[in-house]
Design a protein that fits this description.
The chain is of the alpha/beta class and 492 residues long. The protein has two domains: 117 residues, Golgi alpha-mannosidase II (Immunoglobulin-like); 359 residues, Alpha-Beta Barrel (TIM Barrel), CATH 3.20.20.80. It contains ten helices and 25 strands. Strands 23-22-25-20-19-16-1-21-24 form a nine-stranded mixed β-sheet, with helices on one face. Helix 6 packs parallel to helix 8.
């Protein structure tokens, strides 16, 4: 394969602002499935694997490096079979239940207290998905009471204290079910709208404004969104703060074995995320013209065929290559560019499942290329998203270069994916009405687009720091093929 150098330019306009990039865009998703909770997050307090109160230490340490903002739990489909009372109290006395995934026994050792402990250890906000599929409005409201009621004010608050947490958990984010169109109850949009209203009527807030998230469509299903809000508008409206949708770009080829054509095919599928965001936002405007309701993309990522599991008991586990890293970067850039619309996203899933950042098996632990993307992109959290134009050649109607930019004080942060598998792209980076004083670049690249990290070779794909000197207030940089880059730019 002959490498060519292609010319391009990137123009950043700090005067054209889009909105504040919510830190919650950089959120995560964990479910009781396969090896996510047990063997991934939870190893147990008596384990020989280093842990803090039963939670894997290496995971805690690495999550803290990426500012994980928010973690969604307990599902997923599992959420609509989960009864929170099963996961409190003495672990040895907790009931064992049938685990729908894998046909395994759910020991309930990782429950509400353990989840809150995990979030606190990694400085993340908890996002709890309630049970609408098999639960009741009363159970949902009692879970809120158990988590948030001030100490000793109610029987459930006393129960929480007796279980080791006198002070309230102050959980803000509550999902009213999961995938109500599917495993969350197979509702019609009208039925789910009625259930949503029932579950969220007169919720106990305990002085903490709750952020309630309704189950939106699978992908860009206009019919679900329109019919839900038509039904929702027929009676007294309860608060909807977030409208969630799930989009998995699927696969093209296998997780590791794929052709050049399949590389571009999957990146094109991932790029469809932008169309969904714009489409759902326009639909919401019909019912919420002031856009009080924001978009929540609380499940997304690649979903490859089975065959690369590191443990046969880890359902839907897959190895992540450079292709998955570019999907992660490309998608996060889409969210950044639509910071006025997207309030939260949760990649599926954190560890040992689908588009994961980590793989673990007993005492073995490794980060995937996706981890490094999140480590680079954390610089955007809380910044103002600004307009950026990428002028480069295209393939399959996708520019070779795509990305996003944000600003904080005199710093501009630019993240870029070069999707071309063979060609470097020499690029001039220009700041409208601004001058670049200095820049530091973090770069994720590998000569092999199939490259991935393993327990035996954990550093096959890692970021490297590059320093470059601007000239006349501009910057010229050559993007490596199939790469993700992050620029920290100081303005004069």
């Amino acid at each position: 394969m002959i490498m060519e150098v292609i010319m391009a330019n990137i123009v950043i306009d700090p005067q054209k602002t889009i909105g504040t990039i919510s830190p919650y865009i950089y959120g995560h998703f964990t479910e009781h499935i396969g090896g996510v909770i047990y063997d991934g997050i939870w190893v147990g307090e008596d384990s020989s694997i280093p842990n803090i109160n039963g939670i894997r230490l290496s995971l805690i340490e690495h999550l803290k490096r990426i500012n994980p903002s928010v973690i969604r739990w307990p599902g997923g489909c599992f959420a609509d079979r989960y009864h929170w009372q099963d996961g409190i109290g003495d672990r040895n006395l907790r009931p064992r239940r049938y685990g729908r995934w894998n046909d395994v026994t759910e020991p309930n050792h990782f429950g509400t207290h353990e989840f809150i402990e995990f979030c606190r250890l990694v400085n993340a906000e908890p996002y709890i998905a309630g049970n609408v599929g098999t639960g009741s409005a009363e159970e949902f409201q009692q879970w809120i009471e158990y988590c948030n009621a001030p100490k000793n004010t109610t029987t459930l608050a006393e129960m929480r204290g007796n279980n080791g947490s006198i002070e309230p958990f102050n959980v803000k984010f509550w999902g009213v079910g999961n995938e109500a169109w599917g495993c969350g109850g197979n509702f019609t949009p009208e039925d789910y709208a009625d259930h949503y209203r029932q579950f969220t009527t007169w919720l106990p807030a305990y002085g903490l404004p709750l952020y309630c998230i309704a189950c939106g469509p699978n992908g860009d299903d206009h019919d679900w969104t329109r019919r839900f809000f038509q039904q929702y508008a027929k009676a007294s409206r309860t608060a909807i703060n977030g409208w969630s949708f799930h989009y998995y770009c699927g696969s093209a080829g296998g997780a590791i074995d794929f052709t050049s054509a399949q590389w571009y095919e999957l990146l094109n599928k991932a790029n469809y995320m932008e169309k969904i965001i714009n489409s759902q936002w326009e639909l919401l405007a019909e019912f919420d013209p002031q856009h009080h309701i924001k978009l929540i993309v609380d499940e997304w990522g690649a979903w490859h065929p089975s065959g690369t599991e590191i443990n046969p008991n880890h359902l839907f586990e897959q190895v992540s290559t450079m292709r998955d890293a570019l999907i992660a970067g490309l998608t996060l850039d889409i969210f950044n560019r639509h910071a006025d619309k997207v309030y939260m996203s949760n990649i599926a899933q954190m560890i040992n499942n689908l588009h994961s950042l980590f793989l673990a098996d007993e005492n073995k632990f490794v980060v995937t290329p996706n981890f490094y993307v999140y480590e680079m992109y954390k610089c955007h959290q809380g910044n103002v998203s600004i307009n950026v134009e990428f002028n480069s050649s295209e393939i399959d109607e996708m520019p070779y270069l795509m990305g996003s930019a944000s600003m904080k004080d005199k710093m501009i942060f630019l993240t870029v994916t070069n999707i071309h598998i063979a060609d470097s792209i020499e690029t001039e980076i220009i700041i409208n009405e601004g001058s670049i004083k200095e820049a530091v670049i973090a770069e994720l690249a590998n000569n092999d687009i199939h490259a991935h990290n393993t327990f035996e070779n954990p550093y096959e794909v890692v970021t490297k720091i590059v320093k470059t000197e601007p000239r006349n207030g501009k910057l010229v940089f050559t993007f490596k093929p199939a790469s993700v880059s992050c620029f920290s730019i100081l303005l004069d």
